[in-house]
Amino acid sequence: MSWLLSFFFSMMNLFSILTSFYSFSGMFMWLMMELNLVSFVGLSMSNMSKSTSLALLKYFSCQSLISIFFLFLFVGSAAFIIPDNYLNLFITMILFCKLGAAPFHMWFVSVMIKLDWFSFIWMFSFQKLIPLFFLFKLYTLWSMLLIFSTLSSLVHGLLVMKMKKALILSSVFSINWIYSSMIMSGYLWLMYFLVYTIIKAFMVMITVSDISKRASSTHLSLSSGLLIFSYFMFLAGVPPSPIFFLKITILSHLVSMDFLMVALILLTSSIILMFMYMNSVVFYCCQSVKLYWMLSFSENSYTANLFFHFMYFCLILYTLFLASISNYF
């Protein structure tokens, strides 16, 4: 019976996504987002633990509150209460909140950290498609909102060392790049989203597989460690990752349209993101091979944090070198 319910809710979820792609009405897309929300909650409830149920309750409450604000905007615009020049900005901010983009991302992090891995993958993939498509259809580049969003996520990501939290904040970072890519005609944003989602899904599956192996072994195999490291580097956009070339394309268009500050902030975010990835990978590997004796290693260890900050200073310089030669692409 549970598999039948899972199939029903997954089909409902995919139906809401596909239907929204052919909609030109804001109200209809809002209805599809609500259908998408209900189907996701139903799908995740089929196999859930106590922590997952609390996370789903928080997710449903936050999304319902966002939907109320969304509906208020439509009613306010129809009654001419909200000026048209502010309506687009307010809708963009609400969609940012719905996507879990910074600075409205705290609820997103607290929900995602408690979800099981299946709901985790579904959340950063299918659940983001309708809001992103809505954002694309009404797109106006609010540069100050984008800069503030990027800087907010940078502050949160500096000292992240847990693997799952790094993956969550990676999703928060990616929204800024996707939003920036919408300035171009066509569907570059969708290409970026699909490439990012596929790489991240493989990354999560490798991590889950390794966690299950570690239940019977205290050591991380060399192949698993290298695979996790390579997927993280692909997510960070290190060449020859497809994300690297997509980021170069986005940056070149932003510079050509005189959004120099936005391009600089996004480039800085990529450097910090790589720093965060390296922190979480090394922390994960050190836990696996039991290297605590080297640095009296713990998550809050000042010595460990100082060591990693110094070690990745060279990595930051290397990334700046890559950024300097990117103008030649």
TrEMBL record:
Spell out where the chain crosses the membrane.
64-83, 89-108, 141-159, 166-183, 189-208, 220-239, 259-285, 306-325
Q: Which N-terminal stretch is annotated as signal sequence? A: none
EC number, UniProt record: 7.1.1.2
- Report keywords, A-Z: Electron transport, Membrane, Mitochondrion, Mitochondrion inner membrane, NAD, Respiratory chain, Translocase, Transmembrane, Transmembrane helix, Transport, Ubiquinone
A single cellular component GO annotation: mitochondrial inner membrane
Q: What class of enzyme is it?
A: translocase
Its localization reads: Mitochondrion inner membrane
Reactions catalysed, as given in the entry: a ubiquinone + NADH + 5 H(+)(in) = a ubiquinol + NAD(+) + 4 H(+)(out)
State one molecular function term (GO).
NADH dehydrogenase (ubiquinone) activity
Q: What's the protein's topology in the membrane?
A: Multi-pass membrane protein
- Show the InterPro entries listed in the entry: Complex_I_Subunit_2
Tell me the Gene Ontology biological-process terms attached to this UniProt entry.
mitochondrial electron transport, NADH to ubiquinone
Q: Which family does it belong to?
A: Belongs to the complex I subunit 2 family.
Q: This protein is called what?
A: NADH-ubiquinone oxidoreductase chain 2
> Which species?
Paracyclopina nana
